[in-house]
Specification:
Blueprint: E1 8-15, E2 19-20, H1 31-38, H2 43-64, E3 73-75, E4 81-83, E5 88-95, E6 98-105, E7 109-114, H3 120-130, H4 133-141, H5 145-163, E8 174-175, E9 182-185, E10 188-195, E11 201-207, E12 215-217, H6 219-222, E13 227-228
Length: about 240
């Protein structure tokens, strides 16, 4: 892994319902990705999968100076996809029509995007099942439990995705105190970057101590041939 001051992280957040891909988009995917796409029964899920992998391959193609269709993306023993080049890492998440994609050099990353609007009874059920007693108490005292639940949930999922071990029965392993910029998973520390483009909430977790904030990108920055048909989030963070 690169030194911390060499860690480079880039982040895209977009509304997939307002983006039209070129007709040849599927040709950029690998055979395994096309087979996975064809097996998806839900049209929106399939659309976001195609958008995410298409943009990822073009993004990696620029960084690695390779043909996007020829980039080797492998699945590790824990089921986490990653480029064959060990210095590069990515994470993709989607919820509703929204898609988030992060790319990093020199550090493991994970992100989680949530657009769900949960009612109080469901929040309580999920909290009892997945959160510690202290976390449940914090939510019970919150003036906005719906938003704070998503804050906590996205932190935990993002860290577990970065670690690569999967989220099943693992959410309580992630330790985070509200307001802290870091979370811990056993002996590893992750820097957290929260974003809240309405109606979504997103957390990006980066292993180690990156020197700066992620660089935010637009979908058309990754592939100039996109047709933007609807409004996209503008977080107005980068100059």
């Amino acid at each position: 892994m690169s030194k911390n001051n060499d860690i480079v992280v880039e982040l895209l957040i977009c509304d997939g319902s307002g983006i039209k891909l070129p007709q040849h988009a599927q040709k950029t995917l690998s055979l395994a990705e096309r087979q996975r796409l064809e097996a998806m029964a839900h049209p929106r899920q399939a659309s976001l999968f195609l958008l995410g992998r298409f943009l990822l391959r073009h993004w990696l193609g620029r960084r690695l100076e390779q043909d996007p269709a020829g980039i080797d993306i492998r699945i590790d023993a824990g089921g986490k996809p990653a480029p064959a080049d060990p210095d590069w890492h990515f994470s993709i998440s989607h919820s509703g029509d929204w898609l988030a994609l992060a790319l990093a050099r020199g550090a493991e990353i994970g992100l989680d995007l949530e657009c769900r609007q949960l009612d109080p009874p469901r929040i309580q059920r999920l909290a009892r099942r997945y959160f510690s007693r202290a976390e449940q108490h914090w939510l019970a005292q919150s003036p906005d439990p719906a938003q704070d639940f998503l804050r906590l949930w996205t932190v935990k999922e993002a860290v577990l995705k970065a670690e690569g071990g999967g989220i099943a029965n693992n959410l309580q392993r992630v330790r985070w105190r509200p307001g802290d910029t870091r979370a811990r998973l056993e002996h590893s520390t992750y820097r957290l970057y929260p974003f809240a483009p309405a109606p979504a909430r997103l957390t990006l977790a980066v292993a180690g101590s990156p020197a700066g904030r992620p660089r935010l990108c637009r979908a058309e920055d990754l592939y100039a041939g996109l047709e933007i048909t609807g409004p996209q989030p503008n977080l107005s963070i980068n100059p």
